[in-house]
Design a protein that fits this description.
With 600 residues, the chain is an alpha+beta fold. It has three domains: 189 residues, Histidine kinase-like ATPase, C-terminal domain (Heat Shock Protein 90, 2-Layer Sandwich), CATH 3.30.565.10; 128 residues, 2-Layer Sandwich (Ribosomal Protein S5, domain 2), CATH 3.30.230.10; 208 residues, Ribosomal Protein S8, Chain: A, domain 1, CATH 3.30.1370.100. It is built from 17 helices and 26 strands. The strands form six sheets. Strands 1, 2, 3, 4, 5, 6, 7, 8 and 9 form a nine-stranded mixed β-sheet that branches. Helix 2 packs parallel to helix 5. The protein is elongated.
Amino acid sequence: MAIQQLSSSTINRIAAGEVIERPASVVKELVENAIDAGADHIEIVTVKGGMELIRVTDNGHGMDPSDLSLCVERHATSKLSDDSLVNISTLGFRGEALPSIGSVAKLSIKSRFKEGEAFEVRVTAGKKSEIRPVALNRGTVVEVRDLFFATPARLKFIKSERAENAAITDVIKRLAMAHPQIAFDLTTGERKGFSVQPVDIHDHQALLHRLGRIVSKDFVDNAQIVSEERKGVKLSGFAGLPTFHRATTQWQFLFVNGRPVKDKLLIGAVRAAYSDLLPNGRFPILTLFLDIPPSEVDVNVHPAKTEVRFRDSGFVRSLIISALKNALVEAGFRSSSVLGDNTLTRLGLGAQRGQRGAGSEFGGRQPEFPNHVNMALAERAQAPIEGLDIASGDTAPSRAALKPEDFNQPLGAARAQIHKNYIISQTADSIVIVDQHAAHERLVYESLKHAMETHGIERQGLLIPEIVELDQEMEEALMSRTGELEELGIVVEKFGPRAVAVQEIPVLLDKADIGQLIRDIAEEIQSFDGTLSLKERLNEVFAKMACYGSVRSGRILNGDEMNALLRQMEATPNSAQCNHGRPTYVELSLNDIEKLFGRR
């Protein structure tokens, strides 16, 4: 077949395939145009998931007749001042969204520029009408009807009305988060699905509450402010506490110059910042806004503009990791408020199940037992209850009498230790339950990291070297890293075939099970890529060391030791979760506990 020039309508439909995937893509393009037009109130209406109707109304500066005629032509745009694509400061710029939409649907655009008259242009399956005058107060109204009627093959890829409405809502929510100074109203079908009013972008509390309405109401109580700037690049927003997490990354909202993106570099940087704070398979909730000079980022690498490319990706990654780590350090020992709520919910559900268990199991009837069983139950009910006068744990008070101000400490004053692992602490208006092993594990871990970053890890010699037997591969892996291990406070020497002698260990690990620690570190080294140093996998090694150096479950602590642990937690960043991401404490407010018992 000879080479031939494609018709303009075919070209437009090909372009539509790149830009217009589904109704949500149309909504995104039209709303971004409204934002670029300076609107501070945008109304979106959809019918049948956007397939029957999409209407976007804005109060922006509008277009005059000449602009209105050009806006539906291929590669015509008001968003580039010259032919350069390296300094793009608007959301839309490709110059093909409107003609692409018009090539596969029935498009109508009404617009009024300043105090002039209003005009309308229509495009149906790529055919443009004449410009005609209409009645309109201000701004622009864009209507898209019968989407994909000109390309029926695309209809089979459209999902259910509910799924399409959900995709449209997600698009609007992300744009509303990126542009808090704009009011958004979304109506899907007969129902008003989403509405937010504008807030001052410099009012952090108002901004957080608006984001909380979109993300989650719990986000307001479990977010830490993020703010850092270097070389004209600024990162701001809010990062969820490490104990406030979800099973997927869909709750990570990332924006570059006001543009919602799903970028692998940014997601990877977030993962690195939270690397030693979250359980496996869990992801933080956050909203991050990156403001970077347009010349330093290429937003033209994806047709839907959801991915970007940075001129200096290493610098951007470093900024994000540093800003997030600093914010989480500022959070200190704060733990997620939902932990206490979840605990109380489970307690409440347990109580309800206990109350209705028999009735529900037997179809609402009380169970009937044989007479000899009923007699035994009756005798047992009349018998005295034994054991209530015996403490279930170490309830001995601290040597020094507690003072009223002790209960004003953030984690309160220790009152008891139960099951040889859980510290019960009392504050002025709550009860705190601390997992002593998990808490001390984090304290040792942070101490090791701090020592490594400052003066080096202090170590002590063993009076009698610990001989640890290993298989040949593990022994070879360990001995290949002796210099690096010494920097971490562990001095080992070869001791015959398949064994090593441990001469020195970190002071922080003086009560550790040295043999098992050495075996675990050897296994960790075996799993490394041969080109990686221990310092590059420092977190994993320190996590192993901290686990063996911490207060073990089963160790009884006196009151002074328990209070010392609480005070150290308050002074240590990231102490709300252990090295595996599990919470180290749960706080139950007195009000909620009283509600649980029906006292409020």
